[in-house]
Amino acid sequence: MNEHPLRKQIEEIVKLNDTEFDFVLEHFQKKSFKKHQIVLHEGDYAHFEFFVVKGLMRVSRLDFDGKEHILQFGMENWWITDAEAFHHKTKSTLIVDCLEDTETLSLTLENKEKLSSELPKMRDFFLKKTTNGYIALQKRILCFLSSNANDRYHNLITLYPGLIQRVPKAMIASYLGVTRETLSRLSKTEA
C-alpha cells in the first residue's frame, strides 16, 4: 500500500500514529484545479495554504509594466500560497495559478492553528517547514545577488528536478531573471 504523500512528508520530521494522521487529514480539504486556473488573485484574501498532491502551481506577480516575476513553483509535495496574506489575513499582492491540472490538500489558517495547538507534533512540523522555507528564500535571494545566470540555472535544476520539461522556457527565464536568449544558451551548455 502506498503511503499518503502528506503523511510521508510529515513523517520526515515527526512520527504520527494512524489516529493522529487521521486527525490531521480531517483538517484539510481536497481541492482540484484545472490548468490555467487562478486559485488566488491579487487583491483577494488567501484563505488556504496548498499542499500539492499532483500537478504544478506557481506564485507570481506582475509589475507596473506588465512583466511577470515568478517567485515560486509548487510541484508535488510542495506547499504554496501567498504566505504574508495567508498568515496576516490581508489581501494578496501575488497570484497563485495552476500550470497543470492540480490536486491539492488545502489548509485554512484556523485549521493550521488548531492542529498546532491540539497536536504539538504538528506545531513542530509546521515550524520546521517554515524555517526550511525561510532558509530556501535566503539562499534564493543570495543566489540572485551574488551568482551569475549559469549558477542560478543549475540551482533551479537542483531545486526543481524535472521542471524544465514541464513549463515553457519563458517562465523559467522569468524565475531566473534572465532573457529567453540567455536561457537558451544556458540550456545548450547542459545538452
Index terms:
alpha+beta, 4-stranded antiparallel beta sheet, globular, 8 strands, Jelly Rolls, 191 residues, 2 domains
3D architecture notes:
Helix 4 (109-118) packs across helix 5 and helix 7 (169-176) packs across helix 8. It contains eight helices and eight strands. A four-stranded antiparallel β-sheet has the order 1-8-3-6. It has a four-stranded antiparallel β-sheet with strand order 2-7-4-5. The chain folds into two domains: 5-146, Jelly Rolls, CATH 2.60.120; 147-191. It is globular. The longest helix has 27 residues, at 120-146. Helix content is 46%, strand content 21%. With 191 residues, it is of the alpha+beta class. A hairpin with a 5-residue loop joins strand 4 (57-62) and strand 5. This is Cyclic nucleotide-binding domain-containing protein. Residues 31-112 form the Cyclic nucleotide-binding domain. InterPro entries: cNMP-bd_dom (IPR000595), cNMP-bd_dom_sf (IPR018490), RmlC-like_jellyroll (IPR014710).
Can you give me a brief rundown of this structure?
The chain has 191 residues and is an alpha+beta fold. The chain has eight helices and eight strands. It folds into two domains: 142 residues, Jelly Rolls; 45 residues.
Ordered list of secondary-structure elements with their pairings:
Blueprint: H1 5-10, H2 18-25, E1 28-33, E2 38-40, E3 49-54, E4 57-62, E5 68-74, E6 79-80, H3 83-88, E7 95-98, E8 102-107, H4 109-118, H5 120-146, H6 149-159, H7 169-176, H8 180-190
Antiparallel strand pairs: 1-8, 2-7, 3-6, 3-8, 4-5, 4-7
Organism: Flagellimonas chongwuensis
Protein name: Cyclic nucleotide-binding domain-containing protein
Domain Cyclic nucleotide-binding: 31-112
